[in-house]
Design goal:
Blueprint: H1 10-21, E1 25-31, E2 37-43, E3 48-53, H2 60-75, E4 93-95, E5 98-104, H3 118-135, H4 146-150, H5 153-169, H6 177-197, E6 208-211, E7 220-223, E8 226-230, E9 237-240, H7 241-252, H8 263-273, H9 281-285, H10 287-296, H11 302-307, H12 312-330, H13 332-343
Antiparallel strand pairs: 1-2, 2-3, 3-5, 4-5, 6-9, 7-8
Length: about 350
């Protein structure tokens, strides 16, 4: 579900790939997955590719950064996708202010959010641990302002303003207007509690390190009897690593589909990850807090649906995250105590 509508039609894709890559396209098949617009490309010489058209704002510099990370991880035996270079030996092309990349097609299968059984869930933690361990030696990533943007008192204050503003802008004919208003009120209440009572200096005491930045089940391509491939490193940066652990668990376990986590499985997930990366007492004590801080004041999904009632996928995601916030807020102390007791 690309966050911006594609500017590409099949005839334009054929034209672009012929001109920039020398590839004759037989068919372009749209794939409804992720925030970019994605197409599976079939060429006349029986090869297959993945074309991604990123939203406006994605820069060519970020593509170059991602290519460097992928090349680095490939040398560390982490299975990652391979970029196709253009005739100009570039990792990207541009069309109407959109960056476009072409990758080798990986013959495997993907999974949707919250469809993983117990085995797949714990495998995700193992993959994340191995990849994060490999990224320890990568130079060139920074926080990129992410702590102030996602994990600060100011981020909560800004989020509260956005939620109040959206409440005032809810369409009268929005079929979920009352639900939106109630959800936003609850999220504002939780945000104000965290703003008042959480010690934000704690975040700097947590383990901050190189991370994928968007790791979840949607960034995994599975192959039977072969290693799983990790994709989409454009948001790689330094961040509190326990956030990525918490988030990735909540997106894969089928038992968390309604936003209510299985705390037993969460403990096992964190334990598997910690076989590769040592977590400190602040990571474990405040794991649920930091995930809640980042998530609770977001209007993502609510705003998009209010602007366009066809964005039902984003609406479902918004409801999922609000339920997740309710669960985390209710179980902050339980998750904190159990992680400290069972992982440290």
């Amino acid at each position: 579900m690309g966050i911006q509508n594609s500017k590409l039609k099949e005839h334009k894709i054929k034209e672009l790939l012929k001109e920039n890559y020398g590839i004759e396209v037989l068919k372009a098949e749209e794939i409804n997955r992720g925030t970019a617009n994605i197409f599976k490309i079939y060429s006349t010489d029986n090869n297959k590719y993945i074309l991604k058209e990123f939203s406006e704002g994605r820069t060519k510099e970020s593509v170059i950064k991602e290519t460097d990370i992928i090349n680095f991880l490939n040398k560390k035996n982490i299975k990652v996708p391979i970029y196709i270079k253009s005739k100009l030996n570039e990792s990207y092309i541009e069309y109407e202010n959109r960056v476009i990349i072409l990758q080798e097609f990986i013959d495997g299968y993907t999974m949707e959010n919250n469809t993983g059984n117990h085995e797949k869930t714990i495998e995700s933690a193992r993959i994340l641990g191995k990849m994060t361990k490999a990224l320890e030696e990568y130079e060139g990533l920074s926080e990129d302002g992410i702590i102030d943007k996602w994990f600060s008192k100011e981020s909560l204050q800004n989020g509260i303003k956005k939620m109040l503003d959206l409440q005032n802008k809810l369409n009268e004919d929005n079929p979920y207007k009352d639900t939106f208003y109630k959800d936003l009120n609850e999220k504002i209440k939780i945000s104000k509690d965290l703003e008042k009572n959480f010690d934000f200096d704690i975040i700097r005491k947590m383990t901050i390190m190189n991370a994928h930045g968007d790791y979840s089940v949607q960034q995994l391509i599975y192959q039977d009897n072969a290693e799983t491939t990790v994709i989409d490193f454009e948001t790689a940066k330094k961040l509190p690593i326990i956030w990525e652990v918490m988030r990735s668990y909540s997106y894969i376990d089928k038992e968390a589909k309604n936003g209510e986590l299985n705390i037993d499985t969460l403990i096992e997930y964190v334990r598997e990850f910690s076989k590769y990366i040592k977590l400190n007492e602040y990571d474990l004590k405040y794991a649920a807090h930091i995930y809640l801080i980042q998530t609770v004041s977001s209007v993502f999904g609510y705003k998009q649906y209010n602007d366009n009632y066809e964005k039902t996928g984003l609406l479902e995601f918004a409801f999922f995250r609000t339920n997740l916030c309710r669960f985390l807020y209710k179980h902050l102390d339980e998750i904190s105590l159990r992680l400290q007791k069972e992982i440290l």
